Amino acid sequence: MTSPADVLYADNPAWADVTPLPQYEGVNPLAPILYTEEYKDATDYFRGIVKTGEKSPRVLELTEKIIRLNPAHYSAWQYRFETLKAVKVPLEDELKLMDELAVKYLKTYQVWHHRRLLLTESYNLEPKRELEFIAKSLKADTKNYHTWSYRQWLLAFVNDGELWVGELDFVEEMLNEDLRNNSAWHHRFFVVWLGGGGGGMGVGGTREEKERVLRRELTFTKQLISLAPNNPSAWNYLRGVLDRTETPYGLILPFVRLYIVNLSDRAGSTDIVDVENPPPSEGAQLPCTAALEFTADAYERQGDDEGRKKAVELWKVLANEQDTIRKRYWEFRIRGVEKKVGA
Amino acid sequence: MTLPRATPVDGFPTHTSRVQAETEEILFKHHPDPLSNNNATPGSSSLGAASTPTSSSSSTQGKPADSDGGPALQKQLHMSFLVRNMVQGFPARYISQDASQPWLMFWTLQAFSILQVGLDPGNKQRAIDTVMSWQHPDGGFGGGPGQRPHLLPTYASVCALAVVGRPGPGGGWDQIDRQKLYRFFMSVKQPDGSFLVAKDAEVDVRGTYCLLVVATLLGILTPELIEGTPEFIASCQTYEGGFASASQPSYSPGPNPTLLEFPRPPLGEAHGGYTFCALASWVLLQPFLEAGYKGAHSSKPPTIDLNNTLRWLVQMQGTEIELGGFKGRTNKLVDGCYSWWVGGAFALLEVFGIGASSEEIGSQNQPSKDEKLDDGWDDVDDSLLNRKALQEYILWAGQHPAGGLRDKPPKHADAYHTQYCLAGLSAAQHHVYPSVSREQALAQAWVETEPFEPDLGHPGLSQEQRKTIFAKALCWKEEEGASKCVGGAKNRVNASHPVFDLTITHSQGIMAHFYGQDLERLRGPAAKPTAA
Ligand SMILES: [Zn+2]
């Protein structure tokens, strides 16, 4: 930023005291990268700096230049962090630069990790500002893995009850945008069941609270399933919640059954609204594969021959009609219970 | 004559369903015969020459079809792609991978290995010299000369040396500084059993996998090194069954946070790459877990939910309209590289008795599978993924018409996807399984040799532990007669070691050296080398 982008370090008098270090000496490398002159120049000077161990403001400029050319250059990031600490630059300034770089190089591990180092190091962090920044980034790239896990880390690191609770609104906003966004579903699970967003689910909580949260989560998930039943993210969340709370799958069957019948078979069903068991939307394409699978699992878990037989029937439907690509897996499930039938 | 079903949108389109529909449309154009649905019926064979007659001239459609209509692996084109990168160099857009030079090297060399091609001695030596220029004076390998040591390039460098290196001066193997490497490993170790991938860098289960592979290959595993690591791995499993990038060690900031109780919350959703790394790590930790490993921070030994992992893995396979490729996350798109990360992970489950080889294959009372040969897929295929469909995805959609393999059309080919698509093809063609008899044979042939003793004051492995690690790592065996190549035998590639992503031969070679075992004795009559 301080020197014009088109001036090479080799031509820059301010860098005349540094001896550039070529990458390969005495080696004729196999499978080399054909660098641009600009990149080669900057990294030659970086290697020169690393050799002398210099940590000064101009090193910040050099590492920024390299990072802009290749944000995955982890050694430049490392050296930059060490230099920041050595020259005692206000970390807020660095965070502002990171605001820009994070948006530009959203897909890079290093930009998010550098933020994390800065926050950990300075500790006078403003988590709300940070959460807002992350939210903005996620609007641009709704499933960015690093951004989501960074948000989860931040929540855990700060561990503030108010922040945990506020996350539910955020998740709902993201799922309103796209109820198939699996990253948002995972975030919901993290916040509600592993963090402090479920009224202290992750860290204690009374029995009444736990039951209230379970009811709330089941209602929420069923509602989203009813809007678009063929959404594996919602079904996986439902299963995750039931597994986590050790709730029998069978308890949900009255709801799930609505999703394994054909649309034509639904004609004449009542118009009574049952909030516990919201029916599939008009556009739903049934039977829903995930509902068939869920029902079969619920039957199998009954633990008796009757249940196992019913499960096998459904797995056959999946293997031969509804989910043929996974035929071998469904047959594997059938073999798994056939060993038990009558035993 | 029905089209494969499009993924249902339920009249409720969102961003996810829109990009999904666009992808299905593109992918389906790469299907040899969009109007016939022979794909949807796994029992009906459409293999090789028996394939669809309507896939007319391959050149006009850009489809990699043979003159006889079957999908062809364009070995020559891929070879040219690899040779060009290796000899002329990678074009400037690979500057973004300047910190991954060992990976570019490993992907290139390993892609050659899968294609059953070896380098000439001159290029081999150049490869060795290049790799050794990445070794850091403080131990470990960096992403290029002068770059800091990092777990990921350390894996790529050591595996590249497994392919091209040799013992003795200039051969690379004996120039790896194992003491310093071990010290680097211990220096990035965290209290929760995880590892930073480099100093001041992130924790990531890929780093754990890379470290465990290298430590296994080079014989520098110790109980100290892996203390707490099983708990970390198990904590990465999410409610979906797959694994996340990392897990959160504590809920309290400050210099000395208290560790959360195991299992700790995973950071990020279940993901194909992390799932492979976690599962392979779990396999590499088995010698310790089976010997009664008890963590320091938990009262009971850590476990993972393998049934849920299996469910997640199978759910990642795309349907017929996606040509059976694999996704890396729920509600994301299929991508060629997950052919290995997810498709290749099924073999790992067999270590735990899940899948085809829960009993030893080829016992006398079974009819030999060789006798049935090409008459149908069903007879030879006991696997839990759809091997045939996966091969079709790679062959029809994964190959770039100009050479190299890719994520999906219309993307460019790159070094990463070339190697992982080929590795996935290898995993889908061959059935490589952990053989109990092979493990026993290796243990019996074991000769006691000088162990690695870390100079950090804590003990290395006992002779018994080294033997177990060695035998378990090399017990993988290709089931004879169970290979099945879509498009016919001309598409056959080498079998791969399901944990290391090396050929079986290269895995044996480097491990025999570092464990001081006699390679010829190991290969004996029981073990048939699979590499050229
Ligand atoms: Zn990919």
Describe it for me?
The complex is a heterodimer of chains A (343) and B (532). With 343 residues, chain A is mostly helical. Among the domains of chain A are: 89 residues, no CATH class; 84 residues, no CATH class. Chain A has 15 helices and no strands. The mean pLDDT of chain A is 91. With 532 residues, chain B is an all-alpha fold. Among the domains of chain B are: 44 residues, no CATH class; 128 residues, Glycosyltransferase, CATH 1.50.10. Helices cover 39% and strands 2% of the residues of chain B. The longest helix of chain B is centred in the first third of the chain and has 15 residues. The radius of gyration of chain B is 23 Å and the shape is globular. Chain B starts with 14 loop residues before the first helix and ends in a 9-residue tail after the last helix. The C terminus of chain B is likely disordered. The chains are: A mainly alpha (343), B mainly alpha (532). At the A-B interface, helix 1, helix 3, helix 5, helix 7 and helix 9 of A face helix 1, helix 3, helix 4, helix 5 and strand 2 of B. The site of zinc ion (ZN) has 4 residues of chain B, from loops. Chain A: This is Protein prenylyltransferase. Chain A: It comes from Pluteus cervinus. Chain B: It comes from Pluteus cervinus. Chain B: This is Terpenoid cyclases/Protein prenyltransferase.
